[in-house]
Write a structure and sequence with these properties.
The structure holds 2 protein chains of 2 kinds. Chain A is an alpha/beta fold. Chain A contains 5 helices and 10 strands. In chain A, the strands form 3 sheets. In chain A, strands 4-3-7-8-10-9 form a 6-stranded mixed β-sheet, sandwiched between helices. In chain A, strands 1-2 form a two-stranded antiparallel ribbon. Chain A is globular and about 50 Å long. The chains are: A alpha/beta, B alpha/beta. At the A-B interface, helix 3, helix 4 and strand 4 of A face helix 3, helix 4 and strand 4 of B.
């Protein structure tokens, strides 16, 4: 599940990625230590490490679809898709995609949300990767997997830059493997 | 190693243009929506799109690619990666954690706000602003203002598509606009 236990043990790139994450306490609400990945994108070298690691892993898996979850999945997915020759499919909040879509609801801590995908974006039998910046409960990723499977695609793996502790010990999501680069960054002496 | 044959610019633009899907009456009646998601389903067209921007900007010492939420997040980072620049997301309100600066801009009815992280960019840096499409130029001009407020030099705005009848180009002030498809 974690890159460090999956062939990249001791890889200095992982440490660089971890250290570039900015932790913002109490966002979006008190008690949450938000893993801000925008700082990764401010460091070109680190952004390249992230893309290179994912591309090296996926380039020989005959993946033809990279599905990125709105909006931060859009920041990482396309570069991977371009490098491995796959198409990029945006999975979006309701009402954003024009034309015909299918939708999948998923649970939030309080209430429900919904993810949409274009009909016709993926063909039956295509192999897909799902990408997002951070995985917490896995709710959005699970919805993404369902959308792709409903269209007959095979989800090969879900890939995230940061994986939160709730998923510790769980290396699969809906039966699909989960690949995560780093654990959440912790900051000392906070609040 | 065999030399890579690159299609001519015209051929690439022709493929890019044909890969864009037009959806009538979205998001409301009368609007012919230019849907770039079909471009993203064509790996060659998507690669050509990025290559055309990279060819233009790679020797211009661009330090920052600012992408406008959300479709600017699809095109901006691959360009930034290829030219060695940082990527800065320009977002709707309350999405960015931590300290932000914000800029209001007008919509057809009412106003909206765009935010950027404090400290993402530094005075004197050279920036590109990227979005999938320019319509009225409202969001692009808000992005330019945000960057200029902190002393950044906005070199150019880059979009895949322009809707020239909406005269968005005029709202960009003295900033040049580069588009692939008009």
């Amino acid at each position: 599940m974690f890159a460090s236990k999956n062939g990249l043990k001791g890889d200095p790139r992982l440490e660089a990625i971890s250290e570039a994450i900015r932790v913002v306490p109490h966002f979006p609400k008190p008690g949450i230590m938000f893993q801000d990945i925008t700082t990764l994108l401010l460091d070109h070298k680190v952004f390249k490490y992230i893309v290179d690691i994912f591309v090296d892993r996926y380039k020989n898996m005959t993946i033809s679809v990279v599905a990125g979850i709105e909006a931060r999945g859009f920041m990482f997915g396309p570069s991977i898709a371009l490098a491995i020759g796959a198409k990029f499919v945006p999975l979006r909040k309701p009402g954003k995609l024009p034309g015909k879509v299918i939708y999948q609801a998923y649970e939030l801590e309080y209430g429900e949300d919904c993810l949409e995908m274009h009909i016709g974006a993926v063909q039956e039998g295509e192999k897909a990767l799902v990408i997002d910046d951070v995985v917490a409960t896995g709710g959005t990723l699970s919805a993404a997997i369902k959308l792709l499977e409903r269209m007959g695609a095979e989800v090969v793996e879900c890939a995230c830059v940061v994986g939160l502790p709730e998923l510790k010990g769980q290396s699969r999501l809906n039966g699909k493997p989960l690949y995560i680069l780093v654990e959440p960054r912790e900051i000392e002496n906070c609040c | 190693m065999a030399a890579q044959i690159v299609d001519s610019t015209d051929d690439r633009i022709s493929r890019i243009s044909s890969s864009i899907r037009v959806i009538p009456d979205f998001p409301k009646p009368g609007i012919m929506f230019q849907d770039i998601t079909t471009l993203l389903l064509d790996p060659k067209a998507f690669k050509d799109t990025i290559d055309l921007f990279v060819e233009r900007y790679k020797d211009q010492n661009i330090n920052v690619v600012a992408g406008i939420e959300a479709r600017g997040f699809i095109f901006g980072p691959p360009i930034a990666l290829a030219i060695g620049a940082k990527f800065v997301p320009m977002r709707k309100p309350k999405k960015l954690p931590g300290e932000v600066i914000s800029e209001e801009y007008s919509l057809e009815y009412g106003t909206d706000k765009m935010e950027m992280h404090v400290g993402a960019v530094k005075a004197g840096e050279r920036a590109l602003v990227v979005d999938d499409l320019i319509a009225t130029g409202g969001t692009l001009s808000a992005a330019i203002r945000l960057l200029e407020r902190v002393g950044v030099d906005v070199v150019e705005c880059a979009c895949v598509i322009e809707l020239p009848e909406l005269k968005g180009r005029d709202r960009l002030g003295d900033k040049p606009l580069f588009v692939l498809v008009s």
